[in-house]
Write a structure and sequence with these properties.
The chain is an all-alpha fold. The chain has two domains: about 55 residues, Arc Repressor Mutant, subunit A (Orthogonal Bundle); about 140 residues, Tetracycline Repressor, domain 2, CATH 1.10.357. The chain is about 80% helix and about 0% strand. It is globular, with a radius of gyration of 19 Å.
Length: about 200
């Protein structure tokens, strides 16, 4: 009996997710079929179903990956001795995600489907709560170490920061020619002030 290769399994998962992301962004959640996703990934239907049972499972994998990436950034920030520098990395990573036109279309598709699918929405909310908790813990850790002095309570600040970044997704749809470099600089300056980090 062949032993499973974790590295190959993870590579195939990411291969499938890239293909599914393109299909959902190009054709929409309902119009994109599992057969089209398998073809785009260069895999058989049988192999695809060994990794993902349906399109909802694919959407959840996107949400889990996004949450895991965010949590890793926030955990690194929590232990940073240079929070302004590392906050710039967080801004670049988040803007890289929310300002990507393909990811914009995918996010819109996912949210539209979740608004019609209670089970999917519940799962997305669980992932979102985990990311929010990680951001809150990061801000609190910086505050306790004397590296951040947020002017508002940390829970309210977390909601404000989430609203800021999620609003940028819609803003890109309305204003696709946004100057990303200028936006990144302005966003970092605002976050430094909001989190209460010494800007020197």
């Amino acid at each position: 009996m062949r032993t499973a290769n974790p590295e190959l399994q993870e590579q195939r998962r990411r291969q499938i997710l890239r293909a599914a992301g393109r299909c959902f962004a190009d054709k929409g959640f309902h119009q994109a079929s599992m057969a089209e996703i398998a073809k785009a990934a260069g895999l058989s239907m049988g192999l695809l179903y060994r990794y993902f049972a349906n399109k909802d499972a694919l959407v959840m994998a996107f949400a889990e990956l996004s949450r895991a990436n965010s949590v890793a950034l926030f955990e690194a920030l929590a232990t940073s001795d240079h929070p302004k520098r590392d906050l710039a990395g967080v801004v670049d990573a988040i803007l890289g995600e929310v300002l990507d036109p393909a990811l914009l279309r995918l996010q819109m598709e996912v949210m539209a489907e979740a608004c019609r699918n209670d089970a999917l929405m519940a799962s997305l909310r669980r992932e979102d709560a985990l990311a929010r908790d990680a951001l809150l813990a990061s801000i609190e850790a910086l505050r306790q170490r004397g590296l951040a002095k947020p002017p508002v309570p940390a829970p309210a600040l977390v909601e404000l920061l989430n609203a800021l970044f999620e609003g940028l997704t819609v803003r890109l749809a309305m204003q696709p020619d946004l100057d990303r470099e200028r936006l990144a600089k302005a966003t970092l300056k605002a976050l430094v002030a909001l989190v209460g980090i010494d800007s020197r």
